[in-house]
Amino acid sequence: MTEFGLSPIQATARDDAVLKALAGFVMREALGPGQRLPTERILAERLKVSRNTVREALTRWEGLGLVERRQGSGTYLKGVVSLDMLHMPLTLAGGNDFTSLMQTLEIRRALEAEAAALCAVRAGQAEIAEIARKLDVMEQAFHTRAGMSAEEDWEFHQSIYRTSGNPLFEQIIAAMHELFHRFWEHPLGVRDFGHASFPYHRTIYERIATHDPEGARAEALKLIATVEDDLKRGAAKLKLSGQK
Amino acid sequence: MTEFGLSPIQATARDDAVLKALAGFVMREALGPGQRLPTERILAERLKVSRNTVREALTRWEGLGLVERRQGSGTYLKGVVSLDMLHMPLTLAGGNDFTSLMQTLEIRRALEAEAAALCAVRAGQAEIAEIARKLDVMEQAFHTRAGMSAEEDWEFHQSIYRTSGNPLFEQIIAAMHELFHRFWEHPLGVRDFGHASFPYHRTIYERIATHDPEGARAEALKLIATVEDDLKRGAAKLKLSGQK
DNA sequence: TGCAGAAATTGGTTGGACCATTGAGCCATT
DNA sequence: AATGGCTCAATGGTCCAACCAATTTCTGCA
């Protein structure tokens, strides 16, 4: 085991200090996602702090999604950590009814359109190629698996958010996605949910590839509209069949 | 001390289970913000779990801002807790620079416009009157205190988000607001920050009052644009003056 | 009655122990 | 030599018992 560049910390505000020290360590060693941190026991020893304190600190990071712990293996970085990073916990009340689902879509409508527009402005050659790749994979999956391409669909969208240059889009829309899918198996019994949105993926891509922000925005809005329609249709069907 | 309605939990996934049990307890007892939770020792005893495990669970909640611990006093609820809540830590990398501020504004631009449009559609007489009241208070404060009306300004906007009929708008934009202001005392040294946005508050209100969603959206976009301009001007000034 | 000091309460930290999972190395069988 | 199973050390997860530090509550004296 190598010598870790860690020195003891002083009293009070232990776990916070532990995080600062750790963040500094991660930066100095230029550790990135996937790499392993020193073990809890080593951290405790080097920082002259009890292992419990180290654990509380790491628990915080785990809660922020910065770190992943694997019993028997170690603690691994999941994201980029830096001292001046800002964390803002967002708590959303989620219901599982039709109204809540529509509400997540209203947020997505706003963000998706903006992200697509920004993406069209900012995408370089490499980014456009990446989006095209994701689109191909999705269309492939859609055709071979008769429309079951939720996973690939989502990855396509994510590549757009990422290319928008603003990480908040991906984070917030991911939260909406999570809220939406938490109650969604075959949403409201509509089997071919999402089919109608399929063609718009390519049109969005085309507008982005030609750096047409308003066009991309318009296509994104159409896509969300089809999902909203599906949802409404499902709700109406449910109402007819007498289910709650 | 009263009998808490808590029963022991079973093995593995302890701290997660603790949080679930606690969330259930909070809901059953209808505890709200400001109220005190059982002490760690009592929780540990009732849940048949070590105090360390309870602490790790509470550390998670603390990280999410759901709970506040006060040494010697107790652990208090800071927000509303419910079982089906989604907790999403937003991470803004890069720190206190111009880019981060602009990123929060990009989100606000998307959401603010949509919220204003929805508000124009859905606002009833009572809601419109409430927004008018907030607008009056803000304008009053603006004139008497020479532009220092941040608080009243924010309340005006909040009344719009609320009237949009979708609570997610208020929650997410509040998070952006918080992120924005964490960097911001007199943002980038621009003293009259926000002055330019003043007239658009009234124009937004007018579009809402006349149920003109696209007009409201357009005015909201103009408002955000002035803030972005202020920010850019501040950044340019800073660059000139040689500060980092 | 009022207030200062003592005592109890409560979160924060420590150290040490043991459990459960993982992963690497070792060995026997094939 | 390759494969499969075994052992064992490393690592995170949990537990316990004690003590520290801040806060609150109680007590008793003035």
**Distance N terminus to C terminus of chain A?**
60 Å
Principal-axes geometry of chain A comes out as elongated
Q: Which structural category do the helix and sheet elements of chain A fall into? A: mainly alpha
Q: Which blocks of ≥5 consecutive residues of chain A have pLDDT under 50?
A: 1-11
Order of helices and strands of chain A: HHHEEEHHHHHH
Quote the average pLDDT of chain A.
84
Sheet with the most strands: spatial strand order of chain A: 1-2
Beta-strand level of the residues of chain A, as a percent range?
5-15%
- Which two chains touch over the largest interface? A-B, 49 and 49 residues
Number of strands of chain A: 3
Which quaternary structure do these chains form? homodimer
What can be said about the biggest beta sheet of chain A?
2 strands, antiparallel
What do you see in this structure?
The structure is a homodimer of 244-residue chains. Chain A is mainly α and 244 residues long. Chain A has helices spanning 14-28, 40-47, 51-63, 98-122, 125-144, 150-163, 167-182, 198-209, 213-240, and strands at 67-70, 74-77, 86-93. In chain A, strands 1-2 form a two-stranded antiparallel sheet. In chain A, strand 1 (67-70) and strand 2 (74-77) form a beta hairpin. In chain A, helix 1 (14-28) packs across helix 3 and helix 4 runs antiparallel to helix 7. Chain A starts with 13 loop residues before the first helix and ends with a helix. In chain A, 35% of the residues are buried. Mean pLDDT of chain A is 84; it is low at 1-11. Chains A and B meet through helix 3, strand 3, helix 4 and helix 7 of A and helix 3, strand 3, helix 4 and helix 7 of B. Strand 3 of chain A pairs antiparallel with strand 3 (85-92) of chain B. The structure holds a DNA duplex (30 and 30 nucleotides).
